[in-house]
Each structure stands twice: as structure tokens, then as C-alpha cells.
Write a structure and sequence with these properties.
4-stranded antiparallel beta sheet; 5-stranded antiparallel beta sheet; 330 residues; DUF7595 domain-containing protein; mainly beta
């Protein structure tokens, strides 16, 4: 956050960034122009309570959530904005201003995996409360798996995380105040390692599963999509994934010692972000590949890119961007 402040100025004009509140923060989720930050105090990086903030970097709006005891720092996070929580049968209406959102956490207790939601009130200042803790049905998620789930993708009001055999889906009630359904969406080919698989959504509203492997001397991406209209039709999902699209990346020459991590798929543009560590400087770094146009770009050099632990995609549409900038300077 300190480097971001030097680059674009203070993103939170209402708060003093000279202190330690945001200097030790890390992004854990984002959606529709909002970012979730985990706050670390100086010298207390592994504090018992989990402190989170949700902010809009363009407007400077910040909501500090009440600290939550129990989850620790091994958890998965999903951010749902006001548009995600709309009744699918209701009118869209105007875009909602301010900080209206729901946050879903998945974490472990002794003997079971827990889910908990934070939901804002009807106002737009981000004030809200944590709901009751709920148990995830079925087996407890292993700690090392939960630790690497990261943030969820959101489709039709349902949050999805990429597990080994399928995508874990969590749906909230209409107000976003509590968990209603938990399901597993099976993949058609569940063999990819954690860094080699990624969930995303497409501009036309489908769930996307991306996996990557090495074919000869290049990366080969496998892209599958699923038209998942309802959380009630999960049982047949494995048979309804569309025929995969295979993309061979000729621009990078790799070997069996080259390692890749898929990071983020932009919902609106279809751009895939990933990091690579290889034998040479030309291979190592951070990259962007547009799955529709096949345009390829190297974003940063260095083998250290593949070890980034606080990588979070940030995306907003042009209308929201202009509205945010206008609101900040009026």
C-alpha cells in the first residue's frame, strides 16, 4: 500500500496513511471496483483476530469491518457487490453508489469447515455486521487446500472456489446475510494441480475452468466453459462442460523445470494473468494473455513474480470508472 500511495497518491483521502493501518495490508479479494484488504498491525503479523477492510480505491471510500475471532489467516474469501445480490427476477435499476456488499469467509474450526458472512446495511457507508457461523456440509477442507484457495469468482450471486475435483459453490440468501446452499460443481477433467488451475467467468455469463500443462516446449492451456443457470443442476454439470478450447503459447519456450501459476481471469476482457519462473530471464516474470484475441504481453520481469502471495486482480467497467473518478473530484 505504501508503494501504491507513492504512485497514485492517497487512495483513501479520509484516512491517515502515515500510520500503520494500511502500510501492512494485503489484498485478498476484489470485485466490481471494490477491494478487500487484510490488515496487519506492526509486529503482529499473525494476530489472533482477523481484521479486514473493504475499499474503493477510485473514490477513497473505506469500510473497516469489526475484527473477527477464530479464522486466523488461513481462509478463503468472496466479495459480492450490490449487483450480485439483486433478485435475478427483479429489475436491474441504477448502479448502486457507495459500499454495499457482502463478504463470505470459509475457514476451519476443530473438526469442521465454517462459513460466515458480513453484510452491509441498507445505507451505502459500509456499516454492517457479521452473521452467525454456519457449518459446511460434508467433510472438512484440509488446511493446506484452504490456504491456497484464494478469492472466489462470482456468477449469478454464487461464489465459486477451485477445488481439486470440482468447484465449491456457496449461495447467499436474497439479502446476502447468510449462506443458503453449498454445493460442488464437478469438473470434466479434475487432474490439475493448484497453481495450474483457475476458475473464471466469461462476459456472456458462463463459468470457466482453465488448466495448463507443458506440451513439447510450450505451455498448453485448456479452457472449458459451463452454462450453469441454477445451483440446483450441479449433479449433471460434469457432463455439460463444453468441448475444451486448447491454446498453445508459442511465445514462451519452457522445460520440465519451468513453473507456472495461473493468477486471474478478467471477467470483462477475457485476459488471463499468470506468473512463471524458468531457467532464463526471458521466461521468468508476469504475463497477460487475452484468450479471445490471443494478444500476449509481458508485464514484469523476474523470477520473484512467481512467489507473489498477494496478487489480486482488479477490474471495473468504463461506466463505473468514470462515475468513481467524477465522485472523487466533486
Amino acid at each position: 500500500m505504501a508503494s501504491a500511495t507513492r504512485l497514485i497518491g492517497s487512495p483513501f483521502p479520509g484516512l491517515l496513511l502515515g500510520g500503520s493501518l494500511f502500510h501492512h495490508a494485503r489484498p485478498v479479494a476484489s470485485r466490481n471496483g471494490l477491494v478487500v484488504l487484510e490488515l496487519w498491525s506492526v509486529g503482529a503479523r499473525r494476530a489472533e483476530d482477523l481484521a479486514l477492510a473493504v475499499c474503493n480505491p477510485m473514490t477513497g471510500d473505506v469500510a473497516l469491518l469489526p475484527p473477527l475471532a477464530g479464522p486466523g489467516h488461513d481462509y478463503a474469501c468472496a466479495l459480492l457487490t450490490a449487483d450480485d445480490l439483486l433478485d435475478e427476477h427483479g429489475p436491474l435499476g441504477p448502479r448502486r453508489p457507495g459500499l454495499l456488499f457482502s463478504l463470505v469467509l470459509v475457514y476451519n474450526r476443530r473438526g469442521f469447515t465454517a462459513l460466515r458472512c458480513y453484510t452491509t446495511s441498507s445505507s451505502s457507508d459500509g456499516d454492517g455486521s457479521w452473521g452467525p457461523e454456519a457449518r459446511k456440509p460434508g467433510a472438512k477442507i484440509k488446511g493446506h487446500i484452504l490456504r491456497h484457495l484464494g478469492q472466489a469468482v462470482v456468477l449469478a450471486g454464487v461464489a465459486y472456489w477451485p477445488m481439486y475435483l470440482g468447484a465449491l459453490g456457496v449461495r447467499l440468501d436474497g439479502a446476502g446475510a447468510g449462506v443458503v446452499d453449498v454445493c460442488m460443481v464437478p469438473y470434466s477433467s479434475p487432474n490439475a494441480l493448484p497453481g495450474n488451475r483457475l476458475l473464471g467467468t466469461t462476459p456472456d455469463g458462463r463459468l470457466s475452468f482453465i488448466s495448463v500443462g507443458v506440451f513439447l516446449d510450450m505451455f498448453s492451456f485448456r479452457v472449458e466453459t459451463l452454462d450453469l443457470r441454477s445451483i440446483d443442476d450441479m449433479s449433471t454439470a460434469a457432463d455439460r462442460w463444453e468441448r475444451p478450447k486448447l491454446i498453445d503459447l508459442h511465445q514462451l519456450k519452457v522445460s520440465t523445470t519451468t513453473h507456472i501459476k495461473l493468477r486471474w481471469l478478467c471477467e470483462k476482457s477475457g485476459t488471463l494473468f499468470f506468473t512463471v519462473v524458468g531457467e532464463g530471464t526471458s521466461t521468468s516474470g508476469a504475463f497477460a494473455l487475452n484468450l479471445a484475441t490471443m494478444s500476449f504481453e509481458k508485464l514484469a520481469d523476474g523470477a520473484e513474480c512467481n512467489s507473489w502471495t498477494s496478487f489480486c486482480g482488479y477490474e471495473m467497467d468504463h461506466t463505473a470508472l468514470i462515475a468513481s473518478i467524477t465522485a472523487r473530484f466533486t
